[in-house]
Amino acid sequence: MMTTTSYLFALFIYWLAAGVGCRLLYMMVFRHLSPMWSGATTGLVAGLLLVPSYAAADATTLAPALITGVFNLLFAGGMEAAVGAFLMLSFGAVVGVIVGIITVRLSTSRPSQQ
Fold first, then answer.
1. pLDDT tens, 10-50?
2. How far is CA 49 from CA 3, 9, 27, 40, 106, in A?
């Protein structure tokens, strides 16, 4: 079993890697889309990768909701076991899209400083 420090360190590393991955996806793929679509898709990917969920109803530690949902769906009781993770995943996706759109709107509404 992981200690609290190693668990928090691993969760931080995962979030950092997911954030860097989202930034790279934006720079390499999504930048070629319109600003609104690029912000929405980057936010969607960030929401899908970064939202945490409990692995089981009695669990005390968090795990990425995408991984938890898929593993619970395939190996731990089907859709009934995966509903909580998928609800958190959908909530994270919606919040990610909203934050992505707001971020793009704020970044494109600044006057140029020349």
1. 888 988 998 898 889 888 888 888 888 988 998 999 888 88
2. 24, 17, 17, 14, 23
Name the pLDDT band for 98 (thresholds 50, 70, 90): very high
Residue 70, phi-psi category: left (phi > 0), alpha (psi -120 to 50), beta (remainder): alpha
Q: At what angle do helices 35-50 and 4-28 cross, to 10 degrees?
A: 160
Q: DSSP label at 31? A: G
d(Cα 47, Cα 99) in Å, to the nearest integer?
9
Q: What pLDDT was estimated at residue 95? A: 93
